[in-house]
Amino acid sequence: MNKKFTYIAVALILGVMGALAIGSFWNDAVTTDESPHTVAGYTYLKFKDFRINPEHPPLMKDLAGLPLQFQNLNFPTEHPAWKDNVNDQWWLGPVFLYESGNNPDKIIRSARLSVVIFLFLLGWFVFRFARSTYGTKVALMSLFLFAFSPTFLAHGRYVTTDVGATLGFFIGIFYFLRYLKQRTNRSMVAAGIALGIALLLKFSNFLLVPFIGLLALIASLINWQKPDPQQQMTAFKNSRQIGFALLGIFAIAGILIWIVYAFHVWGYPPERQTADMAHNLSSFGSRFLADTAIKLSEISILRPLAQYLHGLLMVVQRASGGNTTYFLGEVSAAGWTHYFPVVYLIKEQVGLHILTIIAFLTSLGGLWIAWKNLPRRKIGFLWARFKEWLLNYRNFVTLTGLLFIAMYWINSMTSNLNIGVRHVLPTFPFIYMLVSYQIFKWLETTNVKIEPKNPFHIITEFFRSYLATAIKGAFVAFILIWYLLTAVLTYPFYLSYFNELVGGPAKGYLYAVDSNLDWGQDLKRLADFVEKNNIDKIRIDYFGGGSPRYYLGDKFIPWQPSKGEEPGWIAVSATLLMGQTGKTAPGFIRNPQDEYTWLLKHKPVAQIGYSIFVFNIPKEKP
């Protein structure tokens, strides 16, 4: 494929993606996690103090906080949320944004514009990784599937950690595989830096450590051959080289973490850091790990690593505890094993699922043909052929993608933390690459055999072959056009996107809420609705990071279900409505006073951006 055309196509795809992402976030209110992340990023760079939001590494928040350093903002240094309380991010964020004389819209737009960089970087690496492994056509299709995924368009524009985490996993694996291919000191250093960056983007990226260890083990094993002593010696040297390189990669990543965290605790009073850690880890299950982290914070040179361990342990603690959420009519804090498969099925585009099915069947067909053509089927022979297959770099990358998807999904499905499809986002780029690779294998394969029986037969068989390929190509083109149109027509409601299998975003609340649908992003649209309909007072039960008081002023009346039914206007976020009306799971207890069952007998008069329901309760007739 022409190189100039390729880069024009890449620029066009990324350009349209950027326009959709930036345009769609412009009028979104601050979402749930953005408030603490934004104030944290500002304080990290302003004060070199890591007391806020230690449960996430700083890199994404630093990028969000960078443009804020040039806005002459007011910061509440004497407010108890900063001065006295421990990690009081959920109070400090709103105070900083809405109660300190700052412009919250300017702040959040600046921060979002910064973190969109991660979306572009990830897109570029998806193209680069796929191109170096599978070729330009597969790379362009992989990039296309990435760029117009409603899930990436949703989360790539917010000051949250999920796309950054995906980038971290992707570059960590990409550069380690590149080291295995090149085996140079330069590629080892690059892999170490990539791993360090990944570990500074999100703590869940720590899964990279055992995963690249597994890849190193596989790379060592495939070089071993029993019969030949010379080959065994070569394999031993290769294994030793990989082992030492792995230690070097871990060391480089550790040094990078220390350097970055040293900057972030520079202005953090040591005694305050130790006290905060003791408070945050007071209920951590393993006292040995918690006490070790606290003790390390008392040693000056180890304070950066202690702070990193502090955050890592907080994430482990939260993941084991879970979150109360609504899913398929039920409310629970224990989680569901089938949560992620179901939300993936209903949140991702149907076109992607169709392509995935074709890719899966194509790969099964290829495996069946390979199985039939095996001269022997004993375990030893199969293992030898498998190792031979893995010596091909493309095949090793394919296995890596499959292993990573399996590992990550198993880890997610066994976790109690079920609050959004975003938590399996790191596997998506690998899915796009593997699906695209198999789709092009399918397009290039035909079952028509041309045999030289006679000229007429040759001509008819040729056209049958051409026609079969043309039909398959047209079908894939149709799917991709549908995929693109869905992304464009969903604008700007990417967070609330649900596919046609469940009736689209308007019906999504019946299946899953929280970051799948409702993060408070439609608050400003609710304010517009109130203004256009000349509503004087409206009761609001809001889930999100915005401030109803800031956008609605005296029209806003704080509300909750325990206050009961009263005539007039009421708006309730979908997450709260479903969480207070869904059936409780066995063992989960909900206070009857906190239920919205009385609201269900009324029909909503409006659904604001799919995430906020507005009711107008009439006065009872005398």
General description of the model:
With about 625 residues, the protein is mainly alpha-helical. It has three domains: about 5-215 and about 240-325, no CATH class; about 340-490, no CATH class; about 505-615, no CATH class. About 60% of the residues lie in helices and about 5% in strands. The strands form two sheets. Strands 4-3-5-8-7 form a five-stranded mixed beta sheet. Strands 1-2-6 form a three-stranded mixed beta sheet. Strand 3 (about 540), helix 23 and strand 4 form a beta-alpha-beta unit. The protein is globular, with a radius of gyration of 27 Å. The model has no long low-confidence stretch (mean pLDDT about 95).
> If you compute it from the alpha carbons, what radius of gyration comes out, rounded to the nearest whole angstrom?
27 Å
Strand order within the widest beta sheet: 4-3-5-8-7
Runs with pLDDT <50, length 5+?
none
Question: Could you say which structural class the secondary elements and strand pairing correspond to?
Answer: mainly alpha
How many strand units?
8
What global shape is seen? globular
Helix tally?
A: 24
Q: Any idea how many domains?
A: 3
**Helix share of residues?**
55-70%
User: What composes the largest sheet?
Assistant: 5 strands, mixed
Q: Determine the mean pLDDT.
A: 93
Q: What gap, in angstroms, lies between the N and C termini?
A: 77 Å
Q: What amount of the residues lies in strands?
A: under 5%
